[in-house]
UniProtKB/TrEMBL annotation:
Domain EAL: 24-278
Span of the entire protein shown here: 536 to 820 of 820
UniProt name for this protein: PAS domain S-box-containing protein/diguanylate cyclase (GGDEF) domain-containing protein
Superkingdom classification of source: Bacteria
Length: 285
């Protein structure tokens, strides 16, 4: 806190802390009802082939619309869902909802692309991730390769016995695994050595300020070379400008997502994008 506001006194600080705690307890209580009250939805953000701007896949991102508070961003409620273990039922809902949506697009004759969803470490600790995935795939009759599971690097910072077994079981099942926010955790290479990932997502913090920064560019280039060496796809996250796109392409990255192409959109809009099959990004040559 002192970092953000150096003039904050101790009394003010503890008061803010108290307020924050009270707010968190309140949000957690509301989150308990969110699922049953139908307040959660999935938004979809396209992942595009950088050469053509064509949509090749999508990331499902959880959204919570509370009737009184309004929109609550995932960065605020996911940590609370993890602390309260509500991430168990919420995470199960995300898995099933993504599969349900894939099935609906298929049935509507829409050309479907693979869907990525995000998983928390706590979901693995609570158990049953492979079972939940298996059941969702079979209930909605979805081929495993339509689903990619994104796991942020930070999951490896805590010991979790279930994780190793579960990731192996999921790979055996045929779903794709993606290492999210690559480069933000420690010992990034260690995780690549111990697990099999089909995809690596370069964190948006690396993409920022790539222009005129040969040092950052060299790091991104190295990540792309490592990914290629282990046969993994690379996705650049947080692409916001044509110059960033030009640079990551030049460094050898062929797939990306970011506001430049599209923000995450509600399902009806996503469905429309799939139907239109138009290349995204205004200045694509
Ligand atoms: P993430 O998985 O790394 O997702 C990418 C985030 O970057 C999303 O934020 C997305 O909206 C944002 N983003 C995409 N393009 C750009 C861009 O060009 N610029 C900038 N500044 N941001 C961009 P969002 O949707 O707020 O989600 C934040 C995080 O919350 C996610 O990061 C993920 O870790 C977590 N999350 C979201 N949905 C779920 C979920 O269903 N389950 C779990 N466990 N975590 C989730
Ligand atoms: Mg992600
Ligand atoms: Mg990410
Ligand atoms: Mg993230």
């Amino acid at each position: 806190i002192s970092q953000h506001n150096p003039t904050l006194t101790w009394t003010q600080y503890t008061k803010t802390l108290e307020e924050q705690t009270r707010k968190n307890v309140d949000i957690t209580m509301k989150l308990r009802h969110a699922l049953a009250a139908d307040q959660l939805t999935l938004y979809y953000q396209p992942q595009v082939d950088l050469a053509s701007g064509r949509i090749v896949s999508t990331e499902a991102l959880l959204r919570w619309q509370h009737p009184e508070i309004g929109f609550i961003p995932p960065d605020q409620f996911i940590p609370l869902a993890e602390q309260s273990q509500l991430i168990g039922p919420i995470g199960d809902w995300v898995i099933r909802q993504a599969c349900r949506d894939i099935r609906r697009w298929h049935d509507a004759g829409i050309p479907v692309t693979p869907v990525s969803i995000n998983l928390s470490l706590i979901q693995f600790q609570l158990g049953s991730v492979p079972d939940t995935v298996q059941k969702a795939l079979s209930d909605y009759n979805i081929a495993p390769e339509w689903l990619t599971l994104e796991i942020t690097e930070s999951v490896f910072e805590q010991h979790c016995q279930a994780l190793q077994l579960d990731l192996k079981a999921l790979t055996a099942m045929g779903v794709r695994l993606s290492l999210d926010d690559f480069g933000t955790g420690y010992s990034s290479l260690g995780h690549l050595k111990d697990y099999f990932f089909d995809e690596i997502k370069i964190d948006k913090s690396f993409i920022r300020q790539l222009d005129d920064n040969p040092y950052r560019q060299a790091i991104v280039k190295a990540v792309i070379i490592i990914a290629q060496a282990i046969g993994a796809d690379v996705v650049a996250e947080g692409l916001e400008s044509t110059s960033q796109i030009a640079i990551v392409r030049q460094l050898g990255c062929s797939k990306g997502q970011g506001y430049y192409y599209s923000r995450p959109v509600p399902e009806p809009r996503w469905r429309q994008l799939l139907i239109e099959q138009m290349p995204l990004g205004a200045n694509h040559q």
